[in-house]
Amino acid sequence: MTEPALLSVEDVSVDLPTPRGNLRAVDHVDLTIGAGRTLGIVGESGCGKTMLSRAILQLLPKKAKLSGRVRFDGQDLVGLNAERLRKLRGRSLAVVFQDPMTSLNPVLTIGTQLIETLQEHLELDGLAAKKRSVELLAAVGIPAPEQRLTQYPHQLSGGMRQRVAIAIALSCEPKLLIADEPTTALDVTIQAQILDLLAREQRRRHMAMIIITHDLGVVAGRTDEVAVMYAGRVVERAPTPALFKKMHMPYTQALLAAIPKIDAAPHTPLPAISGRPPDPTRPVQGCSFSPRCRYAGAQCYREKPLLTAAESSAHQYACFHPIQLAGGVIA
Amino acid sequence: MMQHYPQSPTRDPLLKVEDLVVEYPVGGKTIHAVSGVSLEVARGETLGLVGESGCGKSTLGRAVLQLRRPVSGRVLFDGQDLTGMQGDSLRKMRQRVQLIFQDPIASLNPRRRIGDIIAEPLVIAGVKDPKKRQELVHEVLSAVGLDPSLVIGRLPHEFSGGQCQRICIARALVLNPEFIICDEPVSALDVSIRAQILNLLEDMKTRFGLTLLFIAHDLAVVKAVSDRVAVMYLGRLCEVGPSEQLFARPAHPYTALLIEAIPVPDPDVRPAESVAVGEPPSPMSPPSGCRFRTRCPRADQRCSDEVPELRAMAPDQFAACHHPLIPAA
C-alpha cells in the first residue's frame, strides 16, 4: 500500500479471564487499512472478529487485557485517556452494530439520539442539528424523515432501525466506519439495500470501512481486502479478487466450499468441515485448524504457522501446506 | 382470497394444505399471517418454503400441526383432516409429524438430561418399557452422529449449537415419524456447522424415508435440500415449482428479487444495485390485489384491483402474478 495507513493494528492480543481459565480471544493480529479503503473481516462465531473490533474501538470488557498497538490517524489508541477517546469515537471512528434494537436507546426518540450526537461532536445549535438530522435520515433512505425524528426505535422495522444507526454513525463524517455484522439480523432483500447504502456512503465520503461478517458472500463484491480469522488469528489476508481466485489457507477454501451455492443442483452433498472450532480456553498447540484440516501433517500439530507472503506481499496465509489453485483446479 | 391450483401438482400428497387462513388478533386489529394458501407435499419429497420475516411461513408450519388453529381451510395429512381433530386423535397424528426449530439451544429444556429429553416423546407415545426406550434413544443418537454413552447423561448447556441441533433432530426422529417440519433449522448455525446439519438432514431423510417441509429464508440453503420450492410473501403464495426450474426461470417478480438479493461469494459477480425497493408492508393492512405490488417494478392498475390466481407457468410451476416474467403455459 502506498498511502500511509489510516488504521494499523499491530500485534494485538486480547485475553479474557473466565471461570474456565484464560480465553485468548484475539491472538497476535496485525492489520492495516488505508483511507477510503474497505476491509472485510470474515470468520465464524467465536473466531475473535468482534473482539478485534472492540479492541480497535477500545470498547473491550473491563476485565479484558489488551496488548499490542492500535494506531489510528497518527495516534496510539491503547492507553489514550477516556476523554480523548470519547472525542474520537463517534467523531472520526464510528461503529454500526448487528442489532439496531439494542444499539439504539429504546426510550429516546430517533431525533434525540441523532441530535445529541451532532451537538456533542460538531457543536451545532439545536436548529442546525435538527436540520442536519433530517438530511441524514433522508440520505440513508428513510421516507418522511421529519416525522421519524419524533418516533421511537420500536416503531421502526429492523431495516429502518439499521438505517437510523447508520445515519448516527455517519453523522460526524467519520474517517473509519466499523460495521459489525450490520445485516445479519435483516432479511435478504433488506440486507442488499443496507449493503448498497453502506457502499454508496463509503464512496461518497471517501471513508474507510471495516465490514465484519460470517458471510463470504457479503465481502466478495464489496471489499478491497479480506482478512479471514480462525480461533483468534488472521489465517489469510489478501486483496479480495486475489483471495477468491487463489486461496491458500485450507480453512478459507473449506469455508467457501461449505456455503450452499445457488447454482448447485438440489441434494448435492455439501463439503462440510468436520468437527468444530477449538475451545478458546484450551488452545491448540500447533495450527488451530489442524484438528479439522485434511492436509494437516506432523508439523501442523507441533508449530503455529505464521502469516507468510504468497505471490505478493499483500496476499498472506498462515499454513504449512498451502493449497494452490492453478487455473481454477485444486492442485 | 382463495389460491386454487389449476391442476394438482403432486400425485401422492402426504400433506395437503387447502386454502389455509391463519390470523392473529392484536389489540383490536388482525394480523393476516396466512391468507388462503394451498400446498401439497408428496410422499418422500422435500418442499422448501421461503420468504422474508413475517411472510407467514412459520405460522403455516405451526398451523399444519394445529399448534395454531387456522381460521379456515383444511390440513389433510395422509387423507385425514387435522383441523377438526382434538385430544387423543390429534396427539396420535402428531407422532407422525414432528417439528425442528431454529434455536436448538432454546428448544431443549436446560434442566433435563439429553437421554430424558429424547426419551420424552416415547413416554408420551406410551412406550412403557424403559429398556426399550433406552435402546431407541441410543439408536437415534448414533444415527445423528453422537456417541450415546457420552451424551445421554449430560445437560444441553454442555453442547454447542450444532450438537444441540443434532439432539433436536434425534428427538424428532425417535418416534419414527413420516413427516418433519424443519423451521429454519440451520439459520442459527455457523457456515461450517450448517453444512454438517444440512447433510445430516439429507441422510436422515433417505435413511428414515421422511417427507420434509423445509422452512427457511435463505434461498441457497433451501435449494440445497428441496425438490420443490414454494415462495411466500405477506401471507400468500407467490410461486411454487421444481427447485432448479424455479431458480433458473422464476415467473414471479418477487422470486426473481429474492434470487438477485443473495450475496454471491464471488467478487466477479457485482452485486446488483438496489434490486429490492422498500420493505414489506404490515400484515395488519396488506395491500389490495397482489400483495407484492407496492414493491413490484411491473405493477399496474390491475395488480391493485385483482388478486392474482395461481396459474401454470411451466410444467409443475405455478405463479400468482398478472405480469409474470415468463409467458404463462
Report on the architecture of this protein:
The complex is a heterodimer of chains A (331) and B (329). Chain A is of the alpha/beta class and 331 residues long. Chain A has a domain at 246-331. Chain A has helices at 49-57, 82-88, 100-103, 110-122, 126-139, 145-148, 158-170, 188-205, 216-220, 240-245, 250-257, 298-302; strands spanning 5-18, 21-34, 38-42, 65-72, 75-76, 93-96, 176-180, 208-213, 225-230, 233-239, 308-309, 316-317, 325-326, 329-330. In chain A, strands 6-7-8-3-9-10-12-11 form an 8-stranded mixed sheet, with helices on both faces. In chain A, strands 2-1-4-5 form a 4-stranded antiparallel sheet. In chain A, a hairpin with a 2-residue loop joins β4 (65-72) and β5. The model of chain A is unreliable at 325-331 (pLDDT under 50). By secondary structure, chain B is of the alpha/beta class. Chain B has a domain at 1-96 and 178-189 and 208-265 and 273-329: Rossmann fold (3-Layer(aba) Sandwich), CATH 3.40.50. Chain B has 11 helices and 12 strands. Chain B has helices at 57-64, 87-94, 114-124, 130-143, 148-151, 161-173, 191-208, 219-225, 243-248, 253-261, 301-305, and strands at 13-26, 29-42, 46-50, 72-77, 80-81, 97-100, 179-183, 211-216, 228-233, 236-242, 310-314, 317-320. In chain B, a hairpin with a 2-residue loop joins β4 (72-77) and β5. The longest helix of chain B has 18 residues, at 191-208. Chains A and B meet through α7, α8, α9, α10 and α11 of A and α7, α8, α9 and α10 of B.
